[in-house]
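hi! just following up on the protien thing from before. the input was this:
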Amino acid sequence: MRPLTLGPVLAGLFAALLPAPAPASAAPAQCAVLPAAHRSAADTWNTGCLRITLNMASAPAVGASSTLDITVESTADRQAAIAVELPGNLAWAAQPAGLTVATRASAAPEDRGRVVAARADRAVRAGQPLRFRGTVTALAAGTGQIRASATALPDVSSDDIFLTISDGSASFGMSSVDTGTAEVPSPGLSALAFKPAGPAQSPPAPPSATTCATGTWGYVDHNGTARASGNATAAVYDRDASGGDDLLATGLTDGAGAFRLCFDNADEEGGGQDIYVRISTDNAHWAVQRTSNTTVFSFDTQVYANVATGSTTSTGSRQPSDPALMRGVEAFDQVAAGWNWTPGSCWDARDTTCHKGLLKWAPDSTDGTYYSLQQDAVHLAADDPKAPNLVLHEWGHYMMDDVYEDDFPRAPKCSPHYIPRTSSTGCAWTEGFATWFAVAVLDDPYFRWPNGASLNVEDPTWGTANWDNGDRVEGRVLGSLLDLVDSTNEGTDQCSEPETGPVWTTFLGHVSNTFSQYWQHRGHDGFDVGAVPLACLYQNTIDY
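and the predicted 3d structure came back as:
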């Protein structure tokens, strides 16, 4: 890299605001990577020096108990925060010795009102696993998820056990999810920003379509807030006794989650039609599909029999009836937040034919967290929607793959990858851009994991503890992009470009394989690459 060349005023500013450039901060002891216990081999977030593993002897039916074994291991000495959480329909019959148990209320729908957490902060020595054992009792029928995490940033390891519990038996996995709908309790749904992803009704209703169905669609997010879900597909069907239900009309929910679909009420079986509405996590630009296949999540209302011609049937405000599926609808809405932020009528504003992105999820998914270049699909683990920035980070990879027309940059030394650590210039660019996309969409300068761990990505600069320096560090690329566009200026960062200005325009116009090449492309586009923007990079230890 060439040395930074500044005028005397900016040079003085550097000297006044920053310490002398420090060498890269000392990294934790080197370690061998431990793959996640029960996660996809493609996961790049849940692998590192640290690993927590859950094993259960059997799945307990209501009133029965089973032994739960917890193992925490590391290939380097770490001080780890350990947590094992049971949902409201499970309890500790015998607490794990060495962990402190406490109960807290939880508004997350799948937790069924509360979480019973066993926690400890413990030193984990290289090659010396910690082992804990407890006994878990099933209190009520339904699905349940036991969560475990071990955190020593930048390592975050997690593991889960999924259960389907009934009075007489139980099984591992979530096999009995309900795809019906339930009434949304008052006071109603909170709406977010909205950009339509298609027409409210397609094709337009003919003049004879005088009979209508209306309603509102939403979900409860991981914080317990009831939210409207816009841009979901709403379709009204006629239930035929002979099978083969007829599609009458289809459209998308609006920003308030509302739909109004009108149709011709002539029923081939005589009388008015027997209608129901199906809401799906799908539209022309993105879809949330089940991990195991290409089926989207669909939720049916009750059947309204023999509706009168010229009438309007209100289905009311509806949400998934099964709490375990709320996170799938939330993931759909998190991608919608990215759609609302992204300029243009396609994910790639230059496209004349839009591409559709896919997100794969299930309430018991262990197939995450990663973006598949082969499938053009984001794969999420079950709890990933509890961290919107993680979902949008992976969607940022889809964005780059779409904009670069499947010419995704090579990214060696990227599995695992860490925000504050050195990888490669390709990995730092692709991962740093993806996290910047999430930060920009959410306007949140923290990276957050599903277990609640977080990392400030706005403030690190020269000499920040446990952060490496330069453009082979994804957090430094992220910080540079962030400082170019944000209005919170500190140190040598005095930039405040529009988020969708030069940074976004250069991204759309070139296939950049590294941040250095992206910076050259920015200059070719005629955007400022002089002392002021270079100082914003320098704030993030990138010295061009």
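Residues 425-442 form the longest helix (18 residues).
The longest strand covers residues 114-124.
cheers
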